Amino acid sequence: MAGKGSDVRPIVKLRSTAGTGYTYVTRKNRRNDPDRLVMRKYDPRVRRHVDFKEER
Q1: Per-residue pLDDT for 6 more than 90?
Q2: pLDDT tens for residues 29-44?
Q3: One-character DSSP codes across 1-56
């Protein structure tokens, strides 16, 4: 049974590149995405979609 300390799917924080400091929290599969994630998501502080980059 999988426990909370699973290293395959770590919890990562995605920070907005718009400079607002807005973040999303998600999980990623480290085997499929070994590099840092970049996702295009909605930032409500600037009211538009911007790139969110993984922060460690």
Answers
A1: no
A2: 999 999 999 999 999 9
A3: ---TT-SSS-EEEEEETTSS--EEEEE--TTT--S--EEEEEETTTTEEEEEEEE-
